[in-house]
Structure formats: C-alpha cells, structure tokens
Write a structure and sequence with these properties.
about 290 residues; 10 strands; about 35% helix; globular; NADP_OxRdtase_dom
Length: about 290
C-alpha cells in the first residue's frame, strides 16, 4: 500500500504519459444548476478533474463553469496559450453504439457542448450492444484521439479482456467501474493492472449506503476522520482515481481531506473484507 500524502494536487500517470488528477469530482445526477454552483466551489478548493457524461445532461454547464472560472481575474495569469489552465482535466463517458458514425458524432457533440476545445479523457459508458458494437465504438474513440478531439480514451463498466484480445491500435488508458470496500471488484482490477489500465472508482462512498457500518465507524474513529474520508483514502491507497460526488460546498471540500492519515495494511485488509458485491446503481455484468 502507498504511504503517499494524497491531496487534490496529487496526479497519476496514464500509460500514454498523460497525467490526470488522482481525486476528481463526480457530477453524476447533478442538475445543471447544481453543476454551475459546485464546479466553481471545487475549482476554488483545488479540484482539477471533473467527471461528466452525456447521460448526465450537464456537460454544457460543466464546460461553462470551467470557462468562467478560467476567465476570472484570479486565474488569468495561469492560463495557457490555448486559453485554459493546463491543470484542469475533464472526462466524459459516451454510450456505445452499433454505428461507428453515431459514436463519432456523439464525441463531437460532447466536445462542442463543453466548449473547451477537446476532452482529456473520453470513455465508452457501457458494454451493452454486443461484441461488434463494443469494438466498433472503440475504433471511434481511437480516431477521435488521432483527430485531437480526445487526449486519452477509456471504457466504463467493462471486463476489458474482450477489448484487449482484439489487439486495439490504441489501448484504453482507464476503466471506470464502481469500486468501494463493499464492492471491491478484485478480478476486474487485477485484469486492468495486468494491462496497465488505470481504475477510476465511481461511487467510492457507496452512495452513502454504508456510512454507519460498524467497521467503517470504528476505523473512522481510530483515524480521526469521517467515514467518507476513510473510504476515499482506501481507494487512493489501492491506486484508484476516486470520483466522490457532492453538490454541497462543505462536503465536497471535506470529503477529500485525506492527507493527514494513512490506513495501515491490516486495516486496509479489514476494509477489503467488507466486500458484499454491493451494487449501488446498476450492474453491467450481464452484458452479452
């Protein structure tokens, strides 16, 4: 386990050399109004990674909030010649499709919606549609990278072996899956590690469904932290990129104050042992 002191400034390198923030704000189930408020709060607090998606219907608001923040007088001097700070990263999952053209158009739509010129990390959101659809959709991601619309590509909710067996021209840099102590996804994580694919952990707080678990409460007391901080720290010590979500200013700041303690190897293993395959949103494992 890592002994690193994690903060919102922590970054991790993808296999292709691009760096991404190791803690990012998830924008899942946030309204456009909530995003317009939460993203500036997060930027001011030090967040530099934001996870949106077409299905969230808030990409435009996320891009608008980032652009407005970049144009503010307090950040003007940090802008690059391309008109954005080099430290801000955005990811955006797009649904897969049986049509290559449909996926390419979908990618262009997201790039246009965010208004930032390109997207740092673009993911295929789900594995549904069958093998041909998955591989066709991935080719669209590869071509979007070649065309400069996307810097890195990845998948979400994938088992990954099928895609890697196809010998892709550009391999995925990230697999975004639900991971937390109550759904550890060990087999998928091990496969990703074998291929050098980073795991982004959505739902790292288990949607607050296990905050009163006795082991979580005991360890939070031991490390003088909140249950949310404990779960984020667990994710980081496993090498994941957690995407904690909150639309409340004080909570999105508090959740990521995880630099002042380190969970011991023994206690990490205790948390690993809480696994009950808890699926808090949807389970893609039945995809054909």
């Amino acid at each position: 386990m890592s002994s690193s002191t994690f903060s919102l400034a922590s970054k991790v390198k993808l296999y292709n050399g691009h760096m991404i923030p190791q803690i990012q704000l998830g924008l899942y189930m946030m309204s456009g109004k909530e995003v317009l408020a939460s993203v500036p709060w997060a930027l001011a607090a030090g967040y530099r990674g934001f996870d949106s998606a077409q299905m969230y219907h808030n990409e435009a608001e996320a891009g608008q909030a980032i652009r407005k923040w970049l144009e503010s007088s307090e950040t003007r001097r940090a802008r690059t010649s391309r008109g954005r700070t080099s430290g801000i990263r955005r990811s955006s999952p797009v649904p897969g499709s049986t049509s290559y053209d449909a996926v390419r158009k979908s990618i262009k739509r997201s790039v246009k919606a965010c208004g930032l010129g390109y997207i740092d990390l673009f993911l295929l959101h789900s594995p549904y549609g069958g093998p041909e659809a998955r591989l066709t959709s991935w080719k669209a991601i590869e071509d979007a990278i070649d065309d400069g619309e996307v810097r890195s590509g990845g998948v979400s909710n994938y088992g990954i072996e099928e895609l890697m067996a196809s010998n892709p021209r550009i391999k995925p840099a990230v697999n975004q899956i639900e991971v937390h102590p109550f759904n550890t996804q060990t087999a998928i994580r091990e496969t990703c590690a074998k291929h050098g694919i980073l795991v982004e952990a959505y739902g790292p707080l288990a949607r607050a469904m296990r905050m009163k678990d006795p082991t979580i409460l005991e360890l939070a007391k031991k490390y003088a932290c909140t249950p949310a901080q404990l779960m984020v720290r667990w994710s980081l010590q496993h090498g994941h990129v957690p995407l904690p979500k909150s639309a409340r200013k004080e909570r999105l700041i508090d959740n990521v104050k995880v630099g002042g303690f380190e969970i011991s190897d023994e206690d990490v293993q205790r948390m690993d042992g809480l696994d009950e395959h808890l699926v808090t949103d949807w389970d893609p494992t039945d995809a054909d």
